Amino acid sequence: MPDKKALVLGGGGARAAYQVGVLKAIVQFYPRNHGIPFKIICGTSAGAINGTSIATHASCFHLGVRKLEWVWRHFNTHKIYRASFSGVLSHLAKMALMGLQDEKINPDAGSLFDNEPLRELLNQLINFARIDRNIGNGALHALSIDTSCYNSSRSVSFFQANRDIDEWVRSRRGGQRTHLNTEHLLASAAIPLVFPSIKLNRGYYGDGSVHQLAPLSCPIHLGAEKIMVINLESPHKQIHQELEHHPKTATIAGHLLDTIFSDTLNSDLERLQRINSTLKLIPEEARQHATLKTIDTLVIKPSEDLSLIAAQHYHDMPMAVRALLRLIGINQQSDSSIVSYLLFEQSYCSALINLGYQDAMCQIDEIKAFFDIDTN
Hints:
Layout: E1 5-9, H1 17-27, E2 40-44, H2 46-56, H3 61-73, H4 85-100, H5 116-125, H6 129-136, E3 142-149, E4 154-161, E5 168-170, E6 173-177, H7 182-188, E7 198-200, E8 203-207, H8 217-221, E9 226-230, H9 249-280, H10 284-287, E10 296-300, H11 306-312, H12 319-327, H13 338-342, H14 346-362, H15 364-370
Parallel strand pairs: 1-2, 1-9, 2-3, 4-6, 9-10
Antiparallel strand pairs: 3-4, 3-8, 5-6, 7-8
């Protein structure tokens, strides 16, 4: 009987560094040669990249977290997308030219930034052959990567798992068995308009959060009975006074990103809690015949506003990117969360790792209970 615990890692660009801090807090309670305590891993966007990295080191939890932390603590924006003046301007010029051409002449995807460096980084760091190996030796049960299909407006979970797991089809969502590779990660992390969509087979795919209607359905289809969620939604500063003017485009864009990455996950968690509460009201003998089952959850999310933390490290962002953002009204004082998603710099990522570690330690009793960690 495989382990029924699942780890769900939400999306959020550079905010995903927070997830590493949470994992760092958990791993300290396991021996150095211990495998991952969750055999099912489901990731979306940047969370899919973190999840895949951990899955390739499923047989050694310590090594997987240590390598992931090293990468995030040594990040810079140039490793994710071209951020020099020449790189930004040449890409924007290419996009402008593409807009004047017929799609049959230039079928490339449009985007604000060129994320080819991310493809090179993923090819260098992730050994996808280890996924099958870890599934074969029992260190991993299943890994899924959530994407959004622009052809059908459906949420598609590409997964690699034990043979006893079947594909599924539901309303506007489904799961497809495949051998995962870099292109699946790039598709899941393709933030709309910011990064280009990716062609997989005959379809075009983007960030998994866009069409994601039920983020928790994937781990449940993969067999999970307990789900730990590292959500990247953070509390925002409260504005009590009335707005004196219409919100700026940058502010609205920030709200849209927050909605894409957090709202459906929060709604699905509420739905799951209602189902759990309803099932508790059903007598035990009748519950055995129900198609629904109780799913225990543990949610960890930032205790501080990540946008405010990003503002403190705003000037670490490459000058070309800051100049481009200023054109759409984003600066250090802007009431927009966009910077917190795009600031792939050491100082900011390290601050999020530290915050994730602190927040997890504040919930350490709940974590120990969830993973059945002996407190003696």
